[in-house]
């Protein structure tokens, strides 16, 4: 786990305007910067970035967060990945994530930079070579691709010849070229006169980018006949094909606009579909769909459609995609499977039948529930007990992989009906975690009642200016507890978070900490993010006033209670006088603060 102190230090060092500005065109507007929101479609800017709060907020869709949150939402990075990305930019090392000795860590970082630089130089070279390669240009034109789409995806050409990269790299024998997968070393035992040569020769080059836009690998396609038709970069420290998706970097905005992502089987499908009006397509890299692929896709959208050829190989690929999706199949996710006729891929289908026909295919894609039930029943005779039992046997590991949800219950009910059993019997037979059909679902835990009045004012000021928490004493907490125990718990949680951040606490760091720990504060954070920042001194005086009024309310209530008893005992009279003295002290404090304004 990354220490909160590191997160705070990181957010102090990065500038959110620079971070967001890499992806969104921002213009100065008063104290803030404005731009078109990258998270929803809009024609006039409602997206603001505050350099003082180090926070972004969209008045249109309500999206808000810190620099870390922006990278997570925009780039689809995980929390640790986003922190690492920002830390690298300001020269910080994420603690507990890299336990190598300093010298070894520096060596690893230097090697990584050398590989990245090599890939970038090779990509630039291949793009430059495409401009003069008439055979490669002719091939792309025959596939219906324009120069604009080729430039968008950074397509290039690796010319024929054994060592063309020698003209790019002054040290052609550098180990980094082998480690990056750009050249191949042949051992002396293998014989032959050439020990080192280019991996990619006479191929159209598809650069593979990570979510930050860095080239981490290549896919190369032969122009005519030849094997393999597609040649991919090998596994390297930069590139693991089971973790990456081709075209995801280019498709992110289109995925948000379309509301779904289309997962295809090849590079050319992605590029051709972008040319034909479907830029929300990505592709697996010559490997089966993995759980990491699914996680990356679901960070971009809740609606994923897998497109496969209708042949046997396509069915096998779809089955693997189904298995990868099951742990993430919840009630708020839409996962579908599109099967085209065996003679077509998405590119050829759109060209023959048109974009509208393909859009209809997308709309008619098979939902996960239907595909799962079809997979376990299509080869079994449900008219006899053996066939029904076999269908249940095949369904068991699939349903066990799913989280408890309404969707799983619907599938259980469908399977029960098809196999002449009951949902409760299926859940018992499959030993499903948290069975839904035979136990009453517990009602969701209600959120705390939103704070009102003075309590809300205090909490609001502390969220906006967490450094003010140093001036809140236990008596203030006790006073709030007497008026509203629920709000006191919320205030205590907030104060503990502020105190943990220390004297240099600021709004962005607190918002990042509360985001993962307390959903109760989210709407309040959004409100504060949308407002002009208040002056710290004015906020301090306002907080002191709210605390004083809260204490006065508690004193008044106790005094009224004592007065109602007639102050018949000495103890009651002494307590009443003590409360009057405390009340007078609070009045004097108010007078002093009033004169100091």
UniProtKB/TrEMBL annotation:
List, for all copies, the residue spans of the domain called Toprim: 259-341
Q: Which UniProt keywords apply?
A: DNA replication, DNA-binding, DNA-directed RNA polymerase, Magnesium, Metal-binding, Nucleotidyltransferase, Primosome, Transcription, Transferase, Zinc, Zinc-finger
**EC top class named in words:** transferase
* E.C. no: 2.7.7.101
Q: Which cofactor does it need?
A: Zn(2+)
Oligomer status and interactors? Monomer. Interacts with DnaB.
Instruction: Return the similarity comment.
Output: Belongs to the DnaG primase family.
**Functional summary from the UniProt entry:** RNA polymerase that catalyzes the synthesis of short RNA molecules used as primers for DNA polymerase during DNA replication.
Q: What is the name listed in the Swiss-Prot or TrEMBL entry for this protein?
A: DNA primase
Lineage of the source organism? Answer: Bacteria, Pseudomonadati, Pseudomonadota, Betaproteobacteria, Burkholderiales
Q: Which gene encodes it?
A: dnaG
